[in-house]
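Preliminary data (for renewal application), fructose -6-phosphate complex.
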Amino acid sequence: MCGIMGYVGPRPASPIILQGLERLEYRGYDSAGVAVADGGVIEIRKSAGKLDRLRQKLDESEPAGHIGIGHTRWATHGPPTDENAHPHTDPTEKFAIVHNGIIENYFELREELRASGREFASDTDTEVLVHLIADEYDGDLAEAIRAAVKRATGAYALVAVTAHEPDTMVAVRMIRPLVIGFGQGETFLASGIPALLDHTRDVLVMEDGELATISAAGIILEKLDGTPVERDHLDIDWDVEQAEKGGYAHFMLKEIFEQPRVVADSLLGRLDGSAVTLEDVKWDSDFEQSLEKIWITACGTAFHAGLAGKEMLEGLLRIPTEAVYAHELRYRDPIVEPNSLTLAISQSGETADTLAAARLLHERGSRLVAITNVVGSALTHYSDDVVYTRAGLEISVASTKAYTAMLVAQYLVALRLGQSRGVLDTARASEVAAALEALPSQVESLLTREAGIDEMSRYLATQLSDENDIYFIGRGLDYAVATEGSLKLKEISYLHSEAMPAGELKHGTLALITQGTPVIVVNTQAHVYDKTISALQEVKARGASVIAVAYDDDSEIEHYTDHVLRIPRTMDLLSPVLSIVPLQLLAYHVADARGLEIDQPRNLAKSVTVE
Ligand code: F6R
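Predicted structure:
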């Protein structure tokens, strides 16, 4: 996730900005830069790579000046290069901007600017904004930004400086966080509180749709329409570690709670009605028509996202789809049909087995699509197409938000292929698109509603934390979610858990169900609902203690279960995005109740780059 730091005051700006960026390093980044305004000029130093490389450039020639902005970039548009690093400037080099988030309509804006003769120095969406600001400038930076952001849609935060007004920087928050810190005759701005804590604990949190004009003496805070805003400052008593976790006890919990934003970002700019734009997908309609087989390959959580993808893609598109563990596939001799598409799914884009399996299918003639969270990762280098998941850096080893983003990426691929192949008519495609658009607020309400899922899963965790074996069951998409729920639980709580299709129980595992055995069932799929209820009756009859994940309006489920974790109603096809959330929380709270490490479970690494 990108980081922003700004400073205006009596001290040299560069070292303070660099120190703030260091405090934001934990969020992950692939390039960094600083812009300082002084004497009618803006000087920029920026570099791909870690902050050391930027520090080296600053050591060689540090721009003098008392106002400046800095940025650590986590690439979304364009690979991590010096050119794509922020800050960006306009052709006159009198304006500089840093930006977090996504400008949804940057492509149209860039084409419009290109048509009027503009040239761009980078592949980023950000550069479009600085051109717009320079175009609109008529002696007042705040007014120019106000006019520019009217033309941009998306979820972002931006900060700009201009050589014409060397005493002020202007910041806008549109969904992405920005905080302002107040010192003695100096003011700081950052994307996160940790960056401010070396200097001040007197902080104001900007809200969506606000613009701040920031000088050493203080700020003017307004809504974008110019209405003045008054807000109390906060006195932050967190230490740096607490601040990095956003006040959550662990990164895993923070990342679970980030999922509404992640789902929204994964959709941003990609859905227009039901039309799907995937910016790094280059296949043409002939390829879409000729497609005969889909392969999905991945490991761990990414594989579980792929299992859901298999159910969903095959069901929607009626194209045979096979999901195979990458470590199995790479040592097989797969028969790869000529018109086939491989979805290689990997949060890191660096998992050795996934890379090997993806290469094998590619070499045998399959078109290769990377679904990954890391721009420029190894997987993207030999893929034909990429769908980035936009989850931002995931710090917890146990993956949560990257999983939901992988699901959304696959829904977008399915919606696009379904329409182009004519298997999804307009009405059905619109229904899927509308349900996708509703997901971010549904995940949000699931996580935040009163007497909600977090409290309920914490309560249930106290009952599960001393168990030895826990079983997860479901059918179809619910089974796919059960596999991920089970993995989450075992990897951080160290309890044995197992997931299986609900129909498989009676073929062996039922022998292990005795009085009090915990069974967790996901039951959201209407066409197999009753079948899963039959499986529940079987385990109940043997004394199992059953927890269900079911829709809010399902009044039948409670007759067969001890506890129900409720999720908002959606199309059955999309339920995994919601039904996984209670299972992530349950796993988290069980591990917490057992007093375990959580963010760094024993024996596990975030990225498995060796075989
Ligand atoms: C579990 C987890 C792992 C990863 C797996 C693949 O929470 O994170 O199972 O999903 O190691 O990693 P990526 O997605 O980076 O290929």
